[in-house]
Amino acid sequence: MSFTEFVNLFRTTTSFDYTKEKPNSPHARGIPVPVKDTDKCYGCTECNDVCPTKCIQVQKDFLEFDYGACLACGLCVEACPNNILKNSGFLYVFSVNREELVVKYPEEKNQIIEIKASRDLSFLKNGFTYREIAAAGNNSVECELNASFNNTFDCDSNGVRAVASPKHADALLFSGPVGQYMEAPLHKAWSTMPDPKVLIACGTEAISGGIFPQGKLPKEPDLYISGDPPKPSVIIQAFCTLMGRNQFRFRESLFLFIKEMKK
Amino acid sequence: MNREKKSITGLFVPQDSEDVYIYSLTQSEVLTRVQKKDTLEEILRSNRFPVFLLRHSLGKRASGNDLIPTYSNFFDREQLVEEYRKNGYLADLSYLGEVMEVEPHQYAHAVGPIHAGIIEPGHFRFRLEAETILSLYIRLGFQRRNIREHIRGKLPMQAMPFAECISGDSTIAYSLAFSRLYEEACGLTVSLNTKLLRLILLEIERIAIHTGDIGAIAGDIGYYPLHGFCATDRGVGLASMEKLTGSRFGRSAILPGNQRINPALTKEDLNSISNSLKTFLHNLEKEFYKACASSTIRERLQICGELKTITVYKKSIVGMPLRATGMRQDLRYTDEHSKFGHPIQLDLDREHLTGEAWSRFYLRFLEIQNSIHWVCSVIDKLNVEYTPPNLKQKFQAKPGVYMAAVEGWRGPVLVALQLDQDARIIDSYIRDPSVLNWRALEIVVENELIGDFPLNNKSFSLSYVGVDL
User: Fold this and answer.
1) Backbone angles phi, psi at A204, to 5 degrees
2) What pLDDT digit, counting tens, does each position of A62-83 carry?
3) Which residues is B451 bridged to in the sheet?
């Protein structure tokens, strides 16, 4: 053992502690949320007009945001004539259930949905390996995935590794809207993976296609991580939720956050 | 390269127009020449137009021609003319060929489209003898999203999200090119502060991505101290970007005629950005010089991937690989860096830039140094006051073809749009530097070891997605 190795035994770790991380970042734009009562909204739909993905539905008595299609560009916040919306800085936009990412305001309008994985995922609880496929995405998600293995974010210490072959992987993680020329390779990679296996959609484009039409997926994903691109810490926190290490619920956490923001 | 020795860098053939637009690159700017469409056959025969450029400009995803039987014809110009006469386009090749004919003592080796790492898809076909690469054929287009069809008929504000995702790591370069184009077409002026913000963002993007690439090259040669440092501290650039714009990649920070600075930004943040960049540079210099002090690392990089000056001239290579051969070419020479009190250093240490992987490694380090020095000297002049952009702005343009080029971190990105009077896009031509530079990679790996290929590939760090729009 070298001297540095010996000293390192007594040093505190500098990488993230994912049990203590907050769901927001002070500098990031994050998803837009209404901070005033939505009855001030008189239905002008200007927010949806500027939205690149048209993910806002302005109805008579509620506002509906599809955060699985939100690119967090913040244009709706600037377009709103009543200043109802605000960039929250909230980044933990992920769920095992697609419907959970579609949120209605005021929050009483949301139907209670049972949020749990579609099947037993306990085989992931000690960590897993994944194979990444860029399915016609722009390369920003790949940049963030590569960054998730650095000393700060330290994906490996959470038991998650990227492997070279789909045959060695428990999970298939894809980014991008699945363009027509990547559909076949994606399906092929999925079919060569041994059971049990999970499919992870990483990035807004992977969930809904974003500004592009979405191609055909091998199956419904088991985990949706939204963001354009999601931050490395968000990706790893989502992995932890998938492995059952925390009880994160997107809607509950978001509503709690908005309540504190309004204060 | 001076004005006389300019190289062809783009070819725009609008669908319903009598003219073709030829863009050529000089030391510091892109020039436009207009020709009649009936000269296209001459263009196809001319050696000044690289085949990759022609195939990109006139190409069309047709039902896949098989790669292998047709590849011998790929560079045959008479074949191009014949194909263009027959179809009106050049059909792309697909990767369907399973078998490749080789001599008895050779073998063929196929890689991709899905590679063994977190990287975009592309298909590489090597022909080898023992460990030596005899030839490499690269086929891309798996990432194709038909951006040119998507932005047809779009207004400026609707086209910007597409511009930003042409290549995710060059978000700022592309959104700046589109914005400058619209500003020129619609006669908009932007304030000096906006110009400063844009140039700072462009340099920060360069710093962040170059740092990641230096780390990746160090990782490929198995030198992990530098790899670990760069992988972690690339975050300094991205965090600075997040502080300035609210997005780690600068998404929707640049709009035509507008700027969108982060509303939460304060003067103290500017100081902290400047300080963190300075600390980062200090640490990077320490780590980099430590790595270079070891002769094995230098020699490992100096023996592979030599790009010759003659190849650069013949194949119209642009951007970083061009500068790494010691030539001077940078569109930032004509940008307005010096208006803010401090010019950016663009002339590099050319004695050490001789075209190998080493030069591309060292060039990145030099560019990071120059960019950080410039950013730190001007960032305190930035006005952090937030003014909401005018999203309802009406764009009025004189119909015609416009072009804008910006020196991104990979090289000059070129955007040419044909606009109508509402600045709607009729037809578009978007040329990533990778279109030309993939050919450089094919050429430099010939007669080199297959084991060095990942290192060579990383030293170019080309875009798979920005190519085959």
Assistant:
1) -60, -40
2) 889 999 999 999 999 999 888 8
3) none
Chain B residues near residue A79 by CB distance under 8 angstroms: 391
Whole-angstrom distance, CA of residue B260 vs CA of residue B160? 13
Q: Please, what is the average pLDDT of chain A?
A: 89
Widest CA span in chain B: 70
A180 CB within 8 Å of a chain B CB? yes
Chain B residue closest to A215 (CA)? Answer: B145
Q: Which residues of A touch B165 (CB under 8 A)?
A: 138, 205, 210-211
The answer to whether residue A189 neighbours chain B at the CB level (below 8 Å) is yes
CB atoms within 10 A of CB A144: 26
Kindly state the average pLDDT of the residues A191-220.
93
Phi, psi of B19, deg, nearest 5? -110, 160
Residue B108: per-residue pLDDT: 87
Chain B residues with beta carbon closer than 8 angstroms to that of A210: 165
- The predicted structure's pLDDT at residue B404: 95
Radius of gyration of chain B (CA): 22
CA distances from B176 to B148, B160, B255 (A): 18, 10, 8
Chain A residues close to B238, C-beta within 8 Å: 147
Q: How confident is the model at residue A125 (pLDDT cuts 50, 70, 90)?
A: confident
- The yes-or-no verdict on residue A240 having pLDDT over 70 is yes
> Chain A interface, mutation test: which of B67, B93, B118, most A Cβ atoms within 10 Å?
B118
Q: Do A134 and B119 touch (CB under 8 A)?
A: yes
* Minimal C-alpha gap between A173 and chain B (Å): 10
Residues of A in contact with B251 (CB under 8 A): 71-73, 228
User: Helices (H) and strands (E) in chain B — how many of each?
Assistant: 16, 13
Q: Is A217 on the interface with B (CB under 8 A)?
A: no
Q: How far apart are the first and last CA of chain A?
A: 54
- Side-chain-side CA neighbours of A81 within 13 Å: the count stands at 9
Note the pLDDT of residue B66.
52
A185 contacts B113? CB cut-off 8 A = yes
Q: Give the H/E segment covering residue B259.
A: strand B258-259
For B235, which of A79, A152, A185 is closest by C-beta distance? A152
Name the residue among B169, B191, B165 with its Cα closest to residue B178. B165
Strand partners, B430: B415
A212: chain B residues, CB-CB within 8 Å = 145, 150
The residue of chain B nearest to residue A79, with distances taken between CA atoms, is B391
Interchain contact A245–B (C-beta under 8 A): no
In angstroms, what CA-CA distances link B262 with A157, B19, B310, B386, B435?
A: 33, 43, 46, 7, 34
Cβ neighbours of B171 in A, within 8 Å: 140
> What pLDDT is attached to residue B1?
44
- For residue B275, the 8-state DSSP code is H
Torsion of CA B374, B375, B377, B381, to 10 degrees: 130
pTM of the model: 0.94
Q: What is the pLDDT of residues B280-319, one digit of tens each?
A: 999 999 999 999 998 999 999 999 999 999 999 889 999 9
Q: What is the pLDDT of residue B77?
A: 86
> Would an 8 Å CB–CB cutoff place A26 in contact with chain B?
yes
Q: Give residue B295's pLDDT.
A: 92
| Min distance B158 CA to chain A CA atoms (Å) | 7
Say yes or no for a CB contact (<8 Å) between B143 and A176: yes
Per 3-state DSSP, chain B is made up of helix, strand and coil in percentages (nearest 5) of 45, 15, 35
Task: Check if the beta carbon of residue A68 is closer than 8 Å to that of residue A59.
Answer: no
Q: Which two tokens stand for residue B374?
A: 């410039």
From the list B137, B130, B165, B139, the residue with the least C-alpha distance to B151 is B165
Please list, residue by residue across B412-434, b when 16 or more beta carbons sit within 10 angstroms of its beta carbon and e when fewer do. bbbbbbbbeeebbbbbbbbbbbb
| Residue ranges in chain B modelled with pLDDT below 50 | 1-3, 69
